[in-house]
Amino acid sequence: MNFGEVNRKSLAWLKSNIILPPADGNILDHRNFKNAESRREIGQRATEFINLLLKKPVENVLVITHGSISTFLIMAWLKVPVENMDYADFSTNSGGVDLLTEDDVWKSRNLAYFNRLDFLED
């Protein structure tokens, strides 16, 4: 996610300069900072990425990412239209693993598990 002008700024700067969402509730096109990506733009990028992956002739794909884009990748996988990507939030922990699957027959898609960390245990 491109956070615009917040890049390379301190956490204190971030907290004092964030642009809060509008009262009308339209967060799909809201930008938290000047020149930051909106949720709509992130959703479009995530959907394009998922569609690109599906064109590749491979059975399994491993995607490593930062947490904020995970929400949009999951929704794109589940074929949620970008226009409906405004309020979902799949918060993840560092190292959390998600498994997205597709049924061989019906091609239905599933979030088989989310934010799994049990592989870290001894």
Task: Give the number of DSSP strands.
Answer: 2
Approximately how much helix is present in the residues? 25-40%
Task: Record the strand order, biggest sheet.
Answer: 1-2
Tally of DSSP helical segments: 3
Walk me through the structure:
Strand 1 (97-102) and strand 2 (109-116) form a beta hairpin. The radius of gyration is 16 Å and the shape is globular. The protein has a two-stranded antiparallel sheet. The longest helix has 16 residues, at 39-54. The protein is of the alpha+beta class and 122 residues long. The protein has a domain at 38-120. The mean pLDDT is 93. The chain contains three helices and two strands.
Task: Give the SSE layout.
Blueprint: H1 11-17, H2 39-54, H3 67-77, E1 97-102, E2 109-116
Antiparallel strand pairs: 1-2
How do you describe this structure in short?
The protein is an alpha+beta fold and 122 residues long.
Feature tags:
11% strand, globular, 122 residues, 2 strands, alpha+beta, two-stranded antiparallel ribbon, 3 helices
